[in-house]
Amino acid sequence: YPCDTEDDPGQWVVFAEGFPTPNGRGKLVPAALTPPAEQPDDEYPLVLTTGRHLEHWHT
Q1: C-beta separation of 28 from 35 below 8 A
Q2: For 31-57, how does the pLDDT look when each residue is reduced to its tens digit (9 = 90+)?
């Protein structure tokens, strides 16, 4: 991405010259934080994640 034709390999670095916005800057939108339904405790002291746990990247 972006690819102009079917055989175009795309760009190694995307948006190096700016973003497609009127001022060229990226738009960052904060995500709403949803607290967990329950916390770890003595009975079940584990936190299971999908691999995308907040602030734990690429683990």
Answers
A1: no
A2: 888 888 899 999 999 988 776 656 655
The residue with tokens 């795309």 is 10
**What does the alpha-carbon distance between residue 57 and residue 51 come to, in Å, rounded to a whole number?**
8
Distance CA 34, CA 36 (A): 6
The two tokens of residue 3 are 């690819």
pLDDT over 70 (residue 3): yes
Hunting for tokens 């055989």 — which residue is that?
7
**Do 27 and 21 contact (CB within 8 A), yes or no?**
yes
Q: What tokens were used for 5?
A: 């034709």
Confidence class for position 14, pLDDT limits 50, 70, 90: confident
Q: How far apart are CA 25 and CA 57, in angstroms?
A: 24
